[in-house]
Amino acid sequence: MAEVVGFSSMDELVEATVPKPIKRGPMSLPGKFHEGLTESQMIDHMKYLAAKNKIAKSYIGMGYYNTIVPPVILRNIMENPGWYTQYTPYQAEIAQGRLESLLNYQTMIAELTGLPMSNASLLDEGTAAAEAMGMCLNIGSRKRPKFLIASNCHPQTIDVCVTRADGLGMTASIVDPDKFEFSKDVCGVLVQYPATDGSITDYASLISSAHANGVKVVVATDLLALTCLKPPGEIGADMAVGSAQRFGVPLGYGGPHAAFLATSQEYKRMMPGRIIGVSVDSNGKPALRMALQTREQHIRRDKATSNICTAQALLANMSAMYAVYHGPEGLKAIADRVHGLATVFSEGVKKLGYQVGSDPFFDTVKVSASNASSLAETAAKEGINLRVLDANTVTVAFDETITLEDVDNLFKVFAKGKRVNFTAESLAPSAGSSLPKEMVRESAYLTHPIFNSYHSEHELLRYLHRIQAKDLSLVHSMIPLGSCTMKLNATVEMMPVTFPEFANIHPFAPLDQTGGYQEMFKNLGDFLCEITGFDSVSLQPNAGAAGEYTGLMVIRAYQKAKGEGHRNVCIIPVSAHGTNPASAAMCGMKIVSIGTDANGNVDIAELKQAAEANKDNLSALMVTYPSTHGVYEDGIDDICDIIHKNGGQVYMDGANMNAQVGLTSPGFIGADVCHLNLHKTFCIPHGGGGPGMGPIGVKKHLTPFLPSHPVVSTGGIPPSSEKAQPLGTISAAPWGSALILPISYTYIAMMGSEGLTSASKLAILNANYMAKRLENHYRILFRGKNGTCAHEFIVDLRAFKATANIEPEDVAKRLIDYGFHAPTMSWPVHGTLMIEPTESESKAELDRFCDAMISIREEIRAIENGTCNAADNVLKGAPHSASMVLSDKWNKPYSRKLAAYPATWVESSKFWPSTGRVDNVYGDRNLVCTLINGDATPAEERVATA
Amino acid sequence: MAEVVGFSSMDELVEATVPKPIKRGPMSLPGKFHEGLTESQMIDHMKYLAAKNKIAKSYIGMGYYNTIVPPVILRNIMENPGWYTQYTPYQAEIAQGRLESLLNYQTMIAELTGLPMSNASLLDEGTAAAEAMGMCLNIGSRKRPKFLIASNCHPQTIDVCVTRADGLGMTASIVDPDKFEFSKDVCGVLVQYPATDGSITDYASLISSAHANGVKVVVATDLLALTCLKPPGEIGADMAVGSAQRFGVPLGYGGPHAAFLATSQEYKRMMPGRIIGVSVDSNGKPALRMALQTREQHIRRDKATSNICTAQALLANMSAMYAVYHGPEGLKAIADRVHGLATVFSEGVKKLGYQVGSDPFFDTVKVSASNASSLAETAAKEGINLRVLDANTVTVAFDETITLEDVDNLFKVFAKGKRVNFTAESLAPSAGSSLPKEMVRESAYLTHPIFNSYHSEHELLRYLHRIQAKDLSLVHSMIPLGSCTMKLNATVEMMPVTFPEFANIHPFAPLDQTGGYQEMFKNLGDFLCEITGFDSVSLQPNAGAAGEYTGLMVIRAYQKAKGEGHRNVCIIPVSAHGTNPASAAMCGMKIVSIGTDANGNVDIAELKQAAEANKDNLSALMVTYPSTHGVYEDGIDDICDIIHKNGGQVYMDGANMNAQVGLTSPGFIGADVCHLNLHKTFCIPHGGGGPGMGPIGVKKHLTPFLPSHPVVSTGGIPPSSEKAQPLGTISAAPWGSALILPISYTYIAMMGSEGLTSASKLAILNANYMAKRLENHYRILFRGKNGTCAHEFIVDLRAFKATANIEPEDVAKRLIDYGFHAPTMSWPVHGTLMIEPTESESKAELDRFCDAMISIREEIRAIENGTCNAADNVLKGAPHSASMVLSDKWNKPYSRKLAAYPATWVESSKFWPSTGRVDNVYGDRNLVCTLINGDATPAEERVATA
Ligand SMILES: Cc1ncc(COP(=O)(O)O)c(C=O)c1O
Ligand SMILES: Cc1ncc(COP(=O)(O)O)c(C=O)c1O
Ligand SMILES: O=C([O-])O
């Protein structure tokens, strides 16, 4: 392959491609990891770590509950590459399955919260609350900079919001909700329902007074409780946020889980994150796709409603399927049982002489105990985790996994050695609901047939596979998305994720129960430091964009600590990913854009000018390396120098680390901080739009400022040698989505130092090989000095608009007919496709993709030379669903066979798009973002009458 | 639903359906299992059992080796319902994926053994050897009744053959292969290569002399060794047998594993088991299907080449994919490494002063040790299992999981506390191959592109999913196969199968390492006794047919013990499954057929006459209950009486236990022995043609005769109170396919006594509901007294031949267009379909299937009334593949849409058959049963030139 590209070997190609000055010395992972473990050794090592985690019965609650993952969902979604390797559903025609599932999720959230608009997941409950806070600020036109947070919210929610408020330039005050004052500068308030101590308050009148004063109300809430309690929408809330974790997603020591945010129709255009909506396809049939994308960072950049990009699609799907499986009655039965257990426990401890909280509760009982900590320690010895609320109070939170026998064990602990002369079973019959009538939910929910048809395992299994069959994923073909690094997620890397000793750990479990996790964090920290050339990492951010925000906040904290808190200018090249300006905006930064030169490189002269002009206020540069154009810029060390000389810090976007690992490193190049997308470079599968992890690495001077956590204190890994001055809290869980860290950990540990370096080289070789094969057919934009590209390259399609009336979308949709997912479209350059093959694809697969592209080029040529109709041709008609090509009426100027079978390989194995081309505009004009109740084909009627 | 059938409740329907005299009292499973466990409790219980199994490093060998199951195969085949819930590929058009995989398997076996014809798996190595012995008998026209078995074969192989020989009326003698005498009465010999003690002998001259005397030679062999050793075919063997287990299938305490049997073209029509072959479809394109079915029991009955029906398809697929993944070079590298480790070990123990065997070896080293047992015991304490060959000899067998460190641990054990002054690593460089040149393989193998393209995880993953997409399974729709009971295999039941503590246990591990298995066997024995009304069960038979053979052999042993060894008549109704007469034939029985009356019941008068006529020699009756016609025969107790009165024993075929469990039982009815198909009634998935388990239950008087095992002695569970007089050995492993027993075990334990009973009732209700819906459209054959059927029923299609030229096959193939697998076709009554819905299907699914059948009835009516062409219509054209309906030339008298989308549900989710109707006759006339080397589309050319 190297020879095709014009080099005698892969190493020679790499030599010619990576600029000399930035070439690092050989990488050296610690100890046995340097050589790399075999798959069998790896599994043994993960079992060794697993054995160091102790699974206790958790009654901690605080937004995290044990749950029973229905095995049919565990095996057929969570452990199934057909689901977990999907990409975000940008190509709607080959994503109708997960789009339907996410629409189910939105419907579930909307109906349980009583608020009609839900997005398709956020990163966690804490950030969902922070996003809602940001919405309140925007609804108040940024003129009301105060936000009140009820003091009985979860502590991690509070801290995430306070940190976020700081970045946004607003103040968040923690106040007893009874003492809220709705002054003119207050844009919104956050209350929690049920509260962190389990108590339930009727917020109807609080909401009325808030509204009377122009203040918006966000309610953090619990989906299971909402099957019993009047939903936030019915008591007037403007927004509801929370976590869907307890709907069938493992605790995972904190994540990943899907969080939700629902609101009224009024504020839908201000919502953060992805929203799935109903539209129509080219045949006028209903079809789903992502709606209202103009709110998002990839279009609106710093004016976006949020920086969120990768979210928690896979987990949202799991939770939605949990609801589909149990249905409304099943969920209610689970809720009643949980509430019943809490009630039985409450009655029992009262008998034992304890005082319990007087407020109504759903699943969490507050118990006064003279020495709460010692009680909790005794309990822990019995494998029972209680929450110490304060010196004299514990709370005990129940979930669907608890049995009457477990409650008896609780009684034993609370009896402190005394005999218990009753049993949970004996108390059960007389324990009635403690919910006040006026707060009991009366409205129906989940009435759509989808939530009422698949309650047996066979039916759910078939539903899962039916919709999976509509979705193209890595099990079908390469997904060569530039910048997204859709690479192999080896099965062995996925296996520890569902080891119970990793999956069933509460994020706030005592540290002595999480030795395996801690050892893995430490090792992973060491790995990532070695890989990035940094001194410490934080594992808290849950996605790349969250990493960007964290990194900038670290810089900000550092500059503040130095007395340079006024520095607020962030220089960002126009070619940067939309999340960069969106994240900078979240840190209150002023963005100065700079352009690129003809070769796609940052215009260094312009950069220098901008840096010098903003010298006094320069906070940071955000730069991607290799550039988003797929080129190793020669001047990157100069660029870092310029920024440093002008008092700024260099933030490196690590999305392109797949071209750096082992060859160079952000630290070596001169960056001060960078995030890593573990879901790109480090093998966490994309899950159809998340989960991800975006840890950041920093240089020594920044280590004291890494985020901590209010419940479990943490900081850099390894810890800073200086006194910690954490910037605050970024995520609800101390180590973000800890459960998926084993994927990246095992990837690195098995590859070893040399393996990782070879992977980067191979990624470069693959990209250059494809570029070479395609250059005789397409114009390839931007190459480096020696005519090579980095790990990705851009194919220019702009000319075809004039010559053949062909747009990138036509090529993208035509690729579907060939069985491929399109490369990244029109980013970073409009009118182009950006191809990233990664190291994990075979030459055969690269060739197959090139063959498809070349064949499409010939199809375009046929239009150019007049052989084919410019208005009606295989590209404009693409993609062609089965129902289109077997329609009895066929009035296309080309054949059915050419439409559906344009290449030999599709004849033996065809992936059928399930719709014709989806109309984006129609859907945004006729917004429908939930299933329509009682109608199995939601949009059909709307469409008919539209 | 009951009301539709004309009853007020399910119980009333059951009351009216099951004859009063046979109704049993309520079932009562022992202890906590009576109530039934929840899924969570079940998993906890299985973990408790798992913890009682101890995984040791096994060096026992004897045909069972540790292996690394490639995780991509583990997750995407073994744990994937898309693969494991497939049915045997009788409907070839919706089974091309697994047919291709099985063709790969046959190719792998053929090329590694050097014998061109392989079948698609047998039950285990022991029975494969026994089948080969049977072939030798038949090749010798049953006129040479002696068979010689080399004394250095595995002991379990020897015992299985000796037992089988006894049944077949031949004698098998165990002889040192050096002393073989090829007399005129010898039909064949069995040698093992490498032998059980690891030694390798060149059998070329032995084979020549055998052939010179008209004696056939069977070689039991090892696939991994054959990558290095001259294959049996090249040294002249007539047949090769063995196990494919070490190609990526877990030990599983003995099974399930795929065994193989390969032979020359000459004997192909005498082979047992399923054979996949290449044929063409209705478009003249190559297509696969099962070949030479006329050899098999379902057609040839007692004249069949074997009784085998369910085999080991899933495991054959796993092994084939292991070879696809590693490819010829990868396999050779594994073999070289294993051989290298054995050599290093051999050198090392010599240095420690031991004497090792002087013969060449591949992976097993024979070591003289004065007190072999005590050495083995010491080793076991270190977690190392050795094989004690005799008082002064151990053998040490290596496999791909062993490392140099493991070899060092062996040295430590053999050094008995003395210091070892070398390491395995230090010996490795000088340890050369010990194989004599003339025995080294020179021929190539696995040269086809399929074995040389998918060596990366991505490529294999995609290959697996690509072919899976061609196969209809329970993930798509119900598979209503009468008599086959394709029911739900709940995920939670599947999970323990891949717990390492169940998967990684050698079948001959010391009993104190298998406490979990033993406890499960005991409980399962108790469960099955309670369910069947018997006193003891044997878990040894690996499929239903093997159970039949075992049951009849038990009867035979009992009668012999009573001095009635002359009893050899077996009465079998004509409606019996083909395995019944085939099994009886294997026990040397004379079959007397009896007919059925107009209601499908056994003709009692005829039975009585036959029994009385054969009074003196009557051995047994084989009877299925409810009958294969789906009816609870009223006279079953009379039938049992008649047989008993005439000195016979009643063998009940338990295939229809799904209509008995909890309502009646074989023991209660009066049977003496019966087999259970755990892969029907008790939820083991069908795996595309196996694995299965066919344990038998017996009355007290038969318990002493249950099979034992030469290596690990076993017998009935619970054991007989009398002295054991075991009939011999049935399977290679003491408890058959132990690894899949957790499936049935958890099913029973979770259902509890009442749950199991309800399942039977629901199965009856579902069948009656469907029969009711269909009776206005089709003639339903045979119902019981109250107009009800049992758990299955027969739809009569015979009339349509005359009215519309329509055959059952046309209906079966048309069902594919509707997304369904056909019911059982033309059995037990020619010209019919037999439908069994099972309890696990929802009403919605039953209705969908009925809707399809009714719609097809209307399509037939259109032919009957002349609206449609009798020669060219949707039924004759079925199934319609995608490439057919989108062909540019469409000259059918019906529309493309009608062809492919005959029902609303296929419009939203279509399962496409990957070929047109497959031509069976063509393939048998042009037999090709392997991939054609160097040609990716094997049959295309043959077809073109045919
Ligand atoms: C260059 C670049 N930066 C940042 C991101 C944001 O990462 P995430 O989606 O994990 O938030 C992306 C995602 O595609 C990216 O390509
Ligand atoms: C009535 C009957 N008996 C026996 C068998 C043989 O069982 P197995 O395929 O497990 O050998 C079958 C299998 O279909 C059957 O239906
Ligand atoms: O797993 C499936 O690809 O259906």
From TrEMBL, chains A, B:
It is an enzyme of class 1 (oxidoreductase). Residues 1-414, 432-707 form the Glycine cleavage system P-protein N-terminal domain. Its EC number is 1.4.4.2. One of its GO terms (cellular component) is glycine cleavage complex. SUPFAM superfamilies: PLP-dependent transferases. Keywords: Mitochondrion, Oxidoreductase, Pyridoxal phosphate, Transit peptide. GO terms for biological process: glycine decarboxylation via glycine cleavage system. The modification N6-(pyridoxal phosphate)lysine is found at K680. It is found in: Mitochondrion. The keyword Mitochondrion applies. Residues 759-880 form the Glycine dehydrogenase C-terminal domain. Its cofactor is pyridoxal 5'-phosphate. Pfam families: GcvP2_C, GDC-P. InterPro entries: GcvP, GDC-P_C, GDC-P_N, GDC_P, PyrdxlP-dep_Trfase, PyrdxlP-dep_Trfase_major, PyrdxlP-dep_Trfase_small. GO terms for molecular function: glycine binding; glycine dehydrogenase (decarboxylating) activity; pyridoxal phosphate binding. It catalyses: N(6)-[(R)-lipoyl]-L-lysyl-[glycine-cleavage complex H protein] + glycine + H(+) = N(6)-[(R)-S(8)-aminomethyldihydrolipoyl]-L-lysyl-[glycine-cleavage complex H protein] + CO2. Belongs to the GcvP family. PANTHER family: GLYCINE DEHYDROGENASE (DECARBOXYLATING), MITOCHONDRIAL, GLYCINE DEHYDROGENASE, DECARBOXYLATING. The glycine cleavage system catalyzes the degradation of glycine. HAMAP family: GcvP. Homodimer. The glycine cleavage system is composed of four proteins: P, T, L and H. This is Glycine cleavage system P protein. It comes from Selaginella moellendorffii.
